[in-house]
Amino acid sequence: MRRIFPILSLNFKNFLKTPGAIILMFVMPVVFSWIFGGMSMNSERNKPVVNIVAGSDEISEQISKLLKKDQNFNWEMAALKKARENVLEEKVLAVVVIPKDIEKRITGNLALFDVIIQKKSQDYLALAAYLQGTARLVSNSYQAADSLEAGAFPHFLAAVAKQKGVTVEKQTIENDSANHVEINLMVVGFAIMFMMFGLSGAASTILEERRGGTWSRLLISPARKFEIIIGYLSSYFLMGWIQFAVLLVAMKFMFGADWGKLSYLVPFASLVILMVVGFGLMVAGIVQTKQQAMALNAILIVSTCMLGGVYWPLDIVPEVMQKIALGVPQSWAMSGFKEIMSGSLHTGVLIKDTLALLGFTILFYVIGLRGIKFD
Amino acid sequence: MTVCDLRKSFGQFEAVKGVSFTLNKGESFGLLGPNGAGKSTTINMITGLFKPTSGSIVLKGIDVVKTPKQAQKWIGVVPQEIALYQEMSARENLKFWGRLYNLSGMELNKKVDEVLEIIGLTDRAKDKVETFSGGMKRRVNIGAAILHNPELLIMDEPTVGIDPQSRNHILETVKRLNEEGMTIIYTSHYMEEVEYLCERIGIIDHGEVIAIGTLKELREKIEDRSRMKLTIDGAKAHSNKISAVLAKSFSEKEFQIQDNQLTVFQKEPQLVLGELVSSVTETGARITSVDIIEPNLESVFLHLTGRNLRD
Questions:
Q1: What pLDDT does residue A161 have?
Q2: What's the mean per-residue pLDDT of chain A?
Q3: Does domain A47-164 have CATH number 3.40.190.10?
Q4: Cβ pair A223:B82 closer than 8 A
Q5: Using CA atoms, how far apart are residues B8 and B16, in angstroms rounded to an integer?
Q6: Which of B179, B249, B295, B309 is the most exposed place for a label (fewest CB within 10 A)?
Q7: Contact B83 A212 (CB under 8 A)
């Protein structure tokens, strides 16, 4: 067993001496995550602004609060004159005016809000739909309050604004955390992809060693086959974990990313890294030269990452593609990470992801170890 | 070490067909054979890299076939390739290979220093192997094999493609190691190296040992003869006359005239030199030089394995 460490340390040192591997394993994922993560964060900050023009009465205040519940827009209070200027200067998407005679409008079946816009953009269509929904909610609240004592409407509205319809509140909460999870998942996706490239490249050094003679020399040393292979694989595993840890820490500092419970994240990430190492071993086992390994890695990694939801969420692809995705390990890895990061941990889903990944891992190691020539 | 009826097949092809030989402690043994003769396969079986199809190898009482890892502790192998990590220094390489043979700490450092001294690379110990010349790399290749003081050192063409100085250094090193008691198996295509280093020689061809013994024994076995080459002025013009005169004393197989050269094949050519000179001068031709060429390992090798080209 003591011969494992020299082999592990040799591979690890050699890896650290290879600038290409460092760039691929550490620099690229951090840079990619920084660029794309940053873009996503900016898109958060650049939400369209909507001005609200409202009176100081209680009903207007409660309706304003109700409107502000939608976090797809940045709601800002403004005076009518300033709001108009903002629209003209295209500083805001729209102005929503809450009229003082809103009760009359409800009873008269008239439009509840006055909306000032310059053009009907895509964002406006989303806003219009939301305004219609809010108007219905206000109108229904008025009718419900009408049966109660006089002056009950603003209080009723306040209660609605506070608790609101379950649907609206849930949607709002999910939107908020979902955005963070999406960014985190994107970072994890980059980590998996670059780890696959990095570790598969590292695993294919076995092919070079076979050609160069050091592999044979290892085999005729007193080191046993399992010591040699564990030495190699554990060095790749260690590299994978360092890469993952660097990325987790970098994203935490850059974007304040939340990675969920470490007690779940660490073992699951370990399994994913083990799977990636197994993938590299499998490729090294089925080809003859490093060049062949590089070509096969490129094809397999890019295509399976596409299928497995590494580049984009699987929710946006057709159902048939979602079914196909089940055949690649990345989809299970991404699903597991999503589950851990979302905070709303469903153990059943995570167990399913873990078992599927375990299956892929075992398969990769069996193929890889059978293919690696020990003489 | 005893190698007994060793066989190895790759599919239908039988690469080694019952190789047997014994090696005494401290002996230096040359294993020769044309390309594809089966010597590398034999060596790979002795080192434990290949499992024989049948047969046995016993080293120091250890069954190499059944327990190769036990035997490998006593074996040092210098492969034909430069089996080193090029991006690491000579010292780092030696330390790595030493660790695999259970050397560590002070003992390892001491051994590495000793070996660097032996291979003459103490002053370049910290340099990366990739910056070394071919000869220096070959010396590190040997160093990595002798770190753990093996009882048996197997060297597979250790001097391929290097300058005469490095080659000489390597040969001297091997000779010294052998004199210090290390048993050596040496393969090379350079016959003079084997002649210089090895007490006994085994010639292997088509997977079989076709001859084994000291160089003297091998010469006797094939009844090889020395060659006496006489350079003659006007040999072509007088060839008929010379042939007629020589035919009185020598058989047709014992001499040959080609261009201006007369070659005579005799076990002890010195004994017939006087007679030969007077016979040739009788014809009016003039002898300008005489060379006696003793049979060497190369002629024995070619005699046994033939002159046909191999793959």
A1: 67
A2: 83
A3: yes
A4: no
A5: 5
A6: B309
A7: yes
